[in-house]
């Protein structure tokens, strides 16, 4: 069996299992994107009692918002080598398009959340999606790497509204069991788009070139904007004029940053997410320029990562109630270290094949999945009265860590197998330090 025959098997198993999770009415396992590109897996025991009907159009728009965010994030990744050549640029400059996107995303979380509390959900959502459309246009017409970097920053800052405002919008519209049910839909769509987006991007790159990916995002963005404008109601019935006061926001953020539990769990998630973004930053050049894969073949490798995260979510749902959050975070951290260390050893031995790289990447991704799921819950646990602020800061730090890491990779011109191995190992070990730092403080929820 060839590598891409195996990928097809992984894709079949992945999507057949996520469908089973969706239609299971007894235990719905919800894998939900948190604010920063992480996931929350939890179990909701759903009975057969009558519940209010769900407007399918509302659900459809919410899912399209999530799909737009995911495709804007990584659909163009298989085109990075082609963009480097077309713009007569360097790998480091094009890698900065990822850094600036993540930086824009990081800033957006602390902007849209309070603003949507003050003036309502719909205006910031429409503004953000509109800004991402403008960013796609900048990228499409970009004559230089600098303009492309600016366009990616606009995309990141704009599309962040889909998480920040979209999450609040869902909480406004649905409660309890309906919220869990919508979470299951979002989880399935997120996993599907996570795997399919780079594959679609690779296909478009091969058939129409790199600009076509940004044209696709431009058209898709307009469609989603029109759907949101036409269908979504204003859901914030309790506007808070104090929501954007700098003094109040700063006080809440400093409270969180002084919490060892919040800081420890959040740093674990930051390092895990930074590892996945490091893969996205280095892998296009490694697999296409060095190993000779086509853009489509490279895009299909994302199924390994999506499958690993799905696997960790399923396993976590069976163990977390018995083992506790802190134990499961430690499990994820050890998987990440194993992935980074095995990739480093393979690199030292001179092995550079697709399997020899993707197996360690899959290990790291499974560890990241365990970490996302449990660190998200652990960071929120001590601050139920500040859930919105916790979510904004958690996501902002996560995306900022990814921006800094990918920027560092561009700065040191890291686009080889050894660079990826070292970065993953260092991030895994850093997560272990953060877990140990929080583990001693977290007796309340680790059992």
UniProtKB/TrEMBL annotation:
Primary location: membrane
Domain Major facilitator superfamily (MFS) profile: 58-442
Molecular functions per Gene Ontology: xenobiotic transmembrane transporter activity
Gene Ontology BP term (one): xenobiotic detoxification by transmembrane export across the plasma membrane
InterPro entries registered for this protein in UniProt: Efflux_drug-R_Bcr/CmlA (IPR004812), MFS (IPR011701), MFS_dom (IPR020846), MFS_trans_sf (IPR036259)
PROSITE patterns xref list: MFS
Compartment annotation: Cell inner membrane; Cell membrane
Keyword annotations from UniProtKB, A to Z: Cell inner membrane, Cell membrane, Membrane, Transmembrane, Transmembrane helix, Transport
Membrane topology summary: Multi-pass membrane protein
TM regions (residue ranges): 12-33, 54-72, 92-112, 124-143, 149-170, 182-204, 210-232, 261-286, 298-315, 327-351, 357-380, 418-438
Gene Ontology cellular component list: plasma membrane
UniProt xrefs under Pfam families: MFS_1 (PF07690)
Family: Belongs to the major facilitator superfamily. Bcr/CmlA family.
Name the record gives this protein: Bcr/CflA family efflux transporter
Organism, scientific name: Legionella pneumophila subsp. pascullei
